[in-house]
Amino acid sequence: MALNYIWVAFFIVAFVIALFKLIFLGDTAIFQVIVEGLFDSAKVAIMDIALPLAGVMAFFLGLLNIGEKAGAINLLARIIGPFFHKLFPEVPRNHPANGEMIMNFSANMLGLDNAATPFGLRAMQSLQELNPDKDTASNAQIMFLVLHTSGLTIIPLSIMAQRAILGAKDPSDIFIPCLIGTYVTTVVSVAIVAAIQRLNLFNRVVIGWLGGITAFLALALWYLSSLPKEQIEEVSKVVGNVLLLSIIVAFLLGALRRKVDIFSTFIEGAKGGFETSVRIIPYLVGMLVAIGAFRNAGAMDYLVGGLKYLFGLTGMNTDFTDALPVALMKPLSGSGARALMIDAMKQFGPDSFVGRLVCIFQGSADTTFYIVALYFGSVGIKKTRYAILAGLIADFAGVLAGIALGYFFFH
Known about the structure:
Distance between the termini: 37 Å
Structural class: mainly alpha
Number of strands: 0
Radius of gyration: 22 Å
Strand content: under 5%
Number of helices: 17
């Protein structure tokens, strides 16, 4: 429902502002600008974004299908299994929910959204079987959902694809900042829910995982902080590309080892690229047209200007405020945030500070309200308890981390 109101509000606010400009400012061209923008935005959504996206998505989804058949998800499941047992003490070790949750998170980490959602829905159903109060979310269900909303992803595939389409010099230069941002959101998610549920995170397994990864990232950032800004950006590009190509090669070698019919598997997965692009066309058209009307009326300038004024009162640098609409939209709508991200990259350029920062925001968290509606709705849960609040706090932490990372890497 929230998305319905937001989408309608885009048009109503645009109309009210245009009417004000016409009556009080004598701007007779404003309605023509908005209407022409509606047609232009609809064309851009299909011709400049969705269709070019099909080729990029087909290639990478084909490769990811090879990785899945090569056992990448099962390998991740075995590695992170002991850690997840500590976060879900109410779930018996031999219960099917454990494997389904691990498969869901593993698929998400690899960017396999199509595979992740069925695993996630099945995991929520299995957790519901253990839930004594069927109308109210259990502790395990809340931990699972809030971790899901943190959007932990190793490969920000769709973001890099959009950057490539819009002409970024190096589409993967946001790889490392996105990875760190989504990790921060995930750690905050775990900490918040664990504190409320009074889980003991100070045990060898949890400390080993969180402490080890945090220490590695802290050392990496400490090293990078000693380099000139230009060199930091160069290191991010090189490491991001090396990691991405290494994952691809690992998938192929794993498939060879398992004697997978590699090319047929690639074709099978690649078919989903076109299907994915076609599926998002209505969402892209709807959101880009609404955002176009909102921006062409001048409402986006007023919003960003207001945010700049408020943050400017503190004396801080306000360059990041042009990217905040993406951060504000992300918890509500993935398609809306994606459309705002694309709109910002088209307006400021994909290699600008704002163009990169919106990508970090997009990659640092997931759509909290949509995920709550989808997963809790699938099992009939009506009382979400503190799930939404915990998810939004984690989202806020991701925004703060995104801003810091944007300035560190690209400003």
